[in-house]
Amino acid sequence: MSFRAINQKYLEPGSQVLMVLGIVALCQPWNMLLHTYGLTIILIGLIGFNITSKIAPEEGAGTGHAGDARNPGAPH
Questions:
Q1: Sorting pLDDT into bands at 50, 70 and 90, what band is 65?
Q2: pTM
Q3: Hey, how many other C-beta atoms are within 10 angstroms of the C-beta on 41?
Q4: Which residues lie closer than 8 Å to 71 by C-beta, 6 or more apart?
Q5: d(CA 53, CA 46)
Q6: CA–CA distance from 48 to each of 25, 41, 64, 68, 75 (Å)?
Q7: CA angle, corner 46, sides to 20 and 39, nearest 5?
Q8: What is the pLDDT of the chain when averaged over all its residues?
Q9: HEC states along 4-60?
Q10: How far is it, in rounded angstroms, from Cα 26 to Cα 40?
Q11: 49 with 19: CB under 8 angstroms?
């Protein structure tokens, strides 16, 4: 498994989940430690998502266009 596949399968969704958990930590009223670091958690997830979303997926990684590999110049 290449780095691009790992990024697409684990890192990008993980950073999205981290952003959501940061919002939950910021809005919950029970634990002051989570509330204190909620914005930090959101920012770490946001930076991670900005980095991982810029990494292109693997070539031919199931784009849904079967004809692209055979004739890349074909009109769609």
A1: low
A2: 0.72
A3: 19
A4: none
A5: 10
A6: 18, 11, 27, 31, 36
A7: 65
A8: 87
A9: HHHHHHHHHHHHHHHHHHHHHHHHCCCCHHHHHHHHHHHHHHHHHHHHHCCCCCCCC
A10: 10
A11: yes
